[in-house]
Amino acid sequence: MSDVPRLLLGSLLLRPYVFAFLGLHLTGASGLLGWRRTAAFTLVTWGVAYAAEASSIRTGIPFGWYYYIPTTVDRELWIAGVPFFDSISFPFLLVSSYGLAWWLLSRPQPGSARAERANRPRPGRARHLALTTVLFVLADVVIDPVALRGERWFLGQIYGYPEPGVYFGVPVANFAGWAAVGAVATAAYHAWEVRQPALRTAVFRGRALLCPGLYFGVLAFNLAVTFALGEWRLGACGA
Fold first, then answer.
1. The domain containing residue 50 runs over which residues?
2. Which of 112, 136, 221, 222 could bridge 182 with an S-S bond, Cβ 3.0-4.6 Å?
3. Segment 27-39 mean pLDDT
């Protein structure tokens, strides 16, 4: 336990881009949903994602069989075989998908004043969960294949599969796992949220725009790395 602060600092220094995205997530999501909902959604998603990753490296469920390569275990925080920076990436990916899904599914009232067009009524929970999950999985169409090539960029080789998958080395089961994590975490957040004061409208203005905007920021980052590696086919599939 005495090493946790040192290793957490190591994670921050080794993966500054992850924590930069996390900071943007907290800033944008709190502007859109409020701090209480942001904290709950972040913690729920991290817990579900961590459990899924810890399970998959031991049982193959839900992402399929894969393994982490613990070359940085003495330099950054790992929790029971899972690098912390990896599991903490899921909240900003899922919540940005959630914010984007809200924007896409809702429309301002016809004839609304221009100043009120940023106000978007809450979409139905089932549709919101479904589109959030789809967007979340689509983000991984680029993220996991380029992460699998981590030895060619500053991420480093952090994981691998016993057998190469059909999609640029990534097995289809991985995407099924992402869908499961996205759906379960969003459903768990909704189950908590129904006990809170109703949030009938979100205002997409100011820093709240960072919430859906982060989705495109993460996508742009991963596409930039993809094209820098000369992976043109992968980049075309993810663009």
1. 4-238
2. 136
3. 97
